[in-house]
Amino acid sequence: MEDLIRQLLRQLGEDPGREGLLDTPRRVAESLGFLTQGYSIDPAETLTGALFESDADEMVVVRDVEFYSLCEHHLLPFYGRCHIGYVPDGKIVGLSKLARAVDAFSRRLQVQERLTAQIARAISDAVRPKGVGVVMEADHLCMMMRGVEKQSSRAVTSCMLDRFRTDARTRGEFLQLIRGGEPR
Ligand code: ZN
After folding, report:
1. How far is the CA of 74 from the centre of ligand 1 (A)?
2. 102 against 183, higher pLDDT
3. Distance from the alpha carbon of residue 67 to the mean position of ligand 1, in angstroms
4. Which end of the chain has the lower number of beta carbons within 10 A, N or C?
């Protein structure tokens, strides 16, 4: 990868031999490895490794999970917050594992819509709850730094499964909770 980065620098009109750039190929390779480490994490294993029996049947909501991802179209960052809710059906999952699953999917080349659906689907498959909702809000550097330069534009995506899709009250409670309000 370091050779490719040196080549890329040359293509950009730079001199990879100048002092400030000497270590850049190694650093970029390391940084890209870190930003895409999600490929080596199995989110299903992460989630199923922390399941607990529970008779809780109230909605569980984890709000404002920070995430950082790279858009697959421009390899530029998009980042923001992810909100997760589910209604347990006999099992609950360790809260930190939800954040870890978000990391596993976001530290890959992504589009926000697919990322949102993958997180919801993985939780649904692992925890088998009565329903799952995931909402992601993100700023995309590829929109902010280039092209239209709409610096205030934020993309919001959501994926609602089972009860969150079919029952307006469940969905409403979830949306209320992630906005920080009390459920009705
Ligand atoms: Zn992009």
Report:
1. 4
2. 102
3. 16
4. C
Strands 109-110 and 60-71, bridge-based pairing = parallel
Q: How far is 5 from 138, CA to CA, in rounded Å? A: 28
Instruction: Please tell me the predicted confidence (pLDDT) of residue 184.
Output: 45
Query: What is the model's pLDDT at position 57?
Result: 87
Total-model pTM: 0.93
- The pLDDT tens digits of the residues spanning 44-69 come to 999 999 999 999 889 999 999 999 99
Is residue 27 pLDDT above 80, yes or no?
yes
Cα-to-centroid distance, 8 and ligand 1 (Å): 19
CA distance 50 to 56: 16
Contacts of 130 (CB under 8 A, 6+ apart): 57, 86, 87, 88, 89, 162, 163
Domains of the chain: 2-35 (no CATH), 37-178 (3.30.1130.10)
- SS3 category, 33: helix
Ligand 1 centroid to 153 CA: how many Å?
13
Stretch 81-87: mean pLDDT, rounded?
98
- Report CA 151 to chain centroid distance, whole Å: 21
Q: Is 90 exposed, middle or buried (0-12, 13-18, 19+ CB in 10 A)?
A: middle
